[in-house]
Amino acid sequence: MFPDLTRDDVFRIETRRLWLRWPRARDAAAIVRLAGEQAVAEMTARIPHPIEPLGTDSFVIEARRANAEGESLTMALALRSAPTALIGIVSIHADPDASGPHLGYWLGVPHWGAGLMSEAAETLVNAYFAYAGGTELTSAAITSNAASRRVLEKCGFVRQGSARQSFPARGGERDVDLFRLTRAGWSATRSDG
User: Fold this and answer.
1) Fewer Cβ atoms within 10 A, N terminus or C terminus of the chain?
2) Where does the record place the N-acetyltransferase domain (predicted)?
């Protein structure tokens, strides 16, 4: 799915305020602390609360493996002023239950409300369409998560309806809004800006 350009752990993308880089073993403690916070974890399908540190190590190892093989692209977010300090994750990975690869993300609570996730998600979406030749992306947001829906809409995603989806870490299903972004939709948002 992703080209050779992204398959080396020196790959990074810089934005005005962020570095998007491969996750590293030393990020595990920040993942446990930030993603394991209940306000973050409860909005995700797969992040347990509390997080087991060993599970976080496995996540980092698997993310790096999938990045190296071009199966997905999982990027750690860090402020440009502190490039080694992880503040969140953004990823695009295959989703066998959807029509296209899936955009997923989380951001630590101390960084909410500053537009950082919109900046990160838009950057990864642009990389996917520009470098990986993608044709479409899917995503979903819990219906009560207005901030996540705004991130997707800022990136050009269009709501496709609602559904019940499995949330293994929450022990059941949750109502979600489903989103989709096509290459044509992405191109249109790029030419509008």
Assistant:
1) C
2) 17-158
Three-state secondary-structure class, residue 173: strand
Find all residues with CB under 8 Å of 61, minimum gap 6, and list them: none
Please choose, from the candidates 4, 26, 140, the residue with its C-alpha nearest in 3D space to the C-alpha of residue 85.
26
Query: Buried b / exposed e across 19-43, counting CB within 10 Å, b at 16+?
Result: bbbbbeeebbebbbebbbbeebbbb
pLDDT of residue 96: 78
Give pTM, 2 decimals: 0.94
Whether residue 91 contacts residue 72, with contact meaning beta carbons closer than 8 Å, is answered with: yes
Residue 18: CB atoms within 10 A of its CB come to 25
Q: Please state which CATH number belongs to domain 4-192.
A: 3.40.630.30
Domain ranges in the chain are 4-192
Give tens-digit pLDDT for 76-110.
999 999 999 999 999 999 987 777 899 999 999 99
Under 8 Å CB-to-CB from 191, ≥6 apart: which residues? Answer: none
Range 82-85, long-range pairs (CB < 8 A, 24+ positions): 83/19, 83/21, 84/26, 85/30
Tell me: the pLDDT tens digits for 158-185? 999 999 999 998 999 999 999 999 999 9
| Cis preceding-peptide flag for 168 (omega within 30 of 0) | no
Q: How far apart are the first and last CA of the chain?
A: 27
For residue 185, what are the CA distances in angstroms to 72, 81, 103? 22, 33, 15
